[in-house]
From TrEMBL:
GO terms for molecular function: ATP binding; ATP hydrolysis activity. The keyword ATP-binding applies. PANTHER family: ABC TRANSPORTER I FAMILY MEMBER 6, CHLOROPLASTIC. This is Fe-S cluster assembly ATPase SufC. It holds the Pfam family ABC_tran. InterPro entries: ABC_transporter-like_ATP-bd, FeS-cluster_ATPase_SufC, P-loop_NTPase. Belongs to the ABC transporter superfamily. Ycf16 family. The gene is sufC. Keywords: ATP-binding, Nucleotide-binding.
């Protein structure tokens, strides 16, 4: 589903990714862990097509397409979803308006009929209930005045409505308390743990992986994948730290 080969990228002339190779097939949740500055968020931004991040080598294939040849909105229409570590606020735009426009824009790109107002509200209510987010929150401006946990829940509602093929989730557990972490984690499972979908889950901590149990775990260090293993690799990191595990790797 997602195949990254020897990917290198830089920002402001500084190389961050340095020959990264990674494959995530359909039906797999693949966790990426690594120390600060390893390139985890850069990887997410490069996959999403964020401006300012220059790819200097390698390739990325997504469902048979050259992902790097697509504009950000084309990547989204192709089924790629990027969850931000810090979801942005959009004053003056309600969540309902934003989500309906986003969903119908993607449906149009795929040649599908737009959702009617009633169809959209039914879908939004279903996904909001999944994330235990009050529908009144969706009437407010996007993320304005939301707590960290509310922002992450709203973002997962967005993911549920857009129903992507593949999700790149950048530290979705950041800023979540224990209860919100479980709700968000269970939301990820409900929306994305399916045979025809895939997830690249970027995190620092085992606590999210206790809920969203990964099929594989990779350590990203110095801009490349340094080690890959099963869920036990994340447990080793939690118990021993990066230095000890990386020394062994």
């Amino acid at each position: 589903m997602l195949n990254i080969e020897n990917l290198s990228a830089e920002i402001d002339g500084k190389r961050i990714l340095d020959g990264l190779t990674l494959t995530v097939p359909a039906g797999e949740i693949h966790a990426i862990m690594g120390p600060n500055g390893a390139g985890k968020s850069t990887l997410a931004y490069v996959l999403g097509g964020r401006p300012g991040y220059e790819v200097t080598g390698g390739s990325v294939s997504f469902c048979g397409q050259d992902l790097l040849d697509l504009e950000p909105h084309e990547r989204a229409a192709a089924g790629l979803f990027l969850g931000f570590q810090y979801p942005v606020e959009i004053p003056g735009v309600s969540n309902v308006q934003f989500l309906r426009e986003a969903a119908n824009a993607q449906r149009k790109a795929r040649g599908e009929e737009p959702l009617t107002g009633g169809e959209f509200l039914k879908l939004a209510k279903e996904k909001a209930g999944l994330l235990k987010l009050d529908m009144n929150m969706l009437k407010r401006n996007v993320n304005v005045g939301f707590s960290g946990g509310e922002k992450k829940r709203a973002e997962m509602v967005q993911m549920g409505i857009l129903d992507p093929k593949f999700a790149v989730l950048d530290e979705t557990d950041s800023g979540l308390d224990i209860d919100a972490l479980r709700v968000v984690g269970e939301g990820i499972n409900a929306i994305m743990r399916k045979p025809d979908k895939g997830v690249l889950l970027i995190t620092h901590y085992q606590r999210l992986l206790d809920v969203v149990k990964p099929d594989k775990v990779s350590i990203l260090a110095n801009g490349r994948i340094a080690a890959t293993g099963g869920p036990e690799l994340a447990l080793r990191l939690e118990n021993e730290g990066y230095d000890a595990v990386m020394e062994t790797a």
